[in-house]
Design a protein that fits this description.
Radius of gyration: 23 Å
Shape: globular
Order of helices and strands: HEHEEHEEEEEHEHHEEEHHEEHEHE
Structural class: alpha+beta
Mean pLDDT: 87
Low-confidence stretches: none
Strand content: 25-35%
Helix content: 25-40%
Length: 334
């Protein structure tokens, strides 16, 4: 929902993109009967409803309900709220949903576009057959590499990426992708995928979107993002110990990071240095210990003695939260 809101706010007013600002968020605390007063369009339009918890391929998983009325949308959400599901190897509860207007269209009007960043620059993928059955886009999509600091022209977009697009849709899509890339760069996205991207009635519609931003750019464009809190990945809850270390980090000139990966894991890491923490964690995974890594984190930038003490105490507290005489844990301090 936040990603679509960014697009709706910042894509050029002359853009061919239709507004995607009509989004209603539903959580376990939402009073459903009050929603139509706040969002009158819920009773005026056909709707799409789906979880909004960083779950990809929701269509394949049966986690999208399309072309329904408000009452059916409420019923569909109620049946799934707080229910545990498994996505690949990850289990988690569904507790955050969005409702949006339904956009009637045909299968041949669906496209796929993705932009992602590498150390050399940015890469744009485009494929003329989007939707749930898009398949292996790495093998099928047209690709355009863009050097750091450069912006592709509409002519470049059209001649490189839109080779399989009907001629009457090329100007619309060339303008949209050009505007989308500028927004991607200016707002410090690192990944942005739209699938499907629909062109119908001379407008471009963003139906489903996944995106990542570089949160270290918050001081540059936090006001433009207007995201109050970055969501945790599906299946991973937020821990108070993580919040505590995050608070220490914000009050310090040093760097203190902690992410709980598996509270039942037997390998706990306390590594000094951001680069060293990544290398050490990768090494543990390469040696077959991935399933036992309990945390990822690092302390660096010369934290004070008291800050280091609080960091170590927090990790030791997590290690001993569930004592088990039959299981040994290892704390690797590097």
């Amino acid at each position: 929902a936040d990603g679509k809101s960014m697009l709706s706010r910042h894509l050029s007013l002359t853009s061919v993109a239709a507004s995607c600002g009509e989004v209603c968020t539903v959580t376990r605390d939402t009073k459903m009967e009050e929603l139509p007063d706040k969002y009158p369009w819920l009773l005026q339009k056909r709707l799409v409803v789906k979880p909004d918890q960083l779950i990809k391929r929701r269509g394949k998983l049966g986690l999208i309900k399309v072309d329904v009325g408000f009452e059916d949308a409420v019923s569909w959400i109620s049946e799934r709220m707080d229910k545990e599901i498994k996505v690949e190897q990850c289990r988690g509860e569904l507790n955050n949903f969005i409702i949006e207007p339904f956009v009637p269209h045909n299968q041949n009007e669906e496209y796929y576009v993705c932009i992602y960043s590498t150390k050399e620059g940015d890469t744009i993928y485009f494929y003329e057959e989007g939707g749930v059955d898009v398949g292996d886009v790495d093998a099928k999509a047209h690709k355009l590499n863009v050097n750091i600091g450069m912006y592709p022209s509409q002519e470049q977009i059209s001649s490189t990426l839109l080779l399989g697009v009907p001629e009457h849709n090329k100007p619309l899509l060339a303008e949209f992708v050009t505007s989308l890339f500028k927004l991607y760069s200016d707002l410090y996205f690192t990944y942005l995928e739209i699938n499907p991207l629909v062109v119908t009635n001379d407008k471009v519609y963003v139906l489903d979107m996944a995106a990542k931003v570089d949160d270290t750019a918050d001081y540059l464009c936090g006001d433009k993002w207007k995201v109050t809190e970055f969501p945790t990945p599906f299946g991973r809850k937020s821990w108070p110990e993580e919040d505590y270390i995050r608070d220490l980090d914000e009050k310090s000139g040093a760097s203190l990071k902690l992410t709980i990966l598996n509270p039942d894991g037997r390998i706990w890491l306390m590594v000094a240095g951001g680069g060293a923490s990544v290398i050490f964690s990768d090494t543990v995974c390469d040696l077959g210990g991935a399933s036992e890594i309990a945390n990822y984190g690092e302390y660096s930038g010369a934290p004070s003695e008291s800050q280091t003490y609080e960091y170590a105490k927090t990790i030791l507290g997590l290690m001993t939260k569930k004592p088990d005489e039959q299981v040994s844990c290892h704390l690797d301090i590097i």
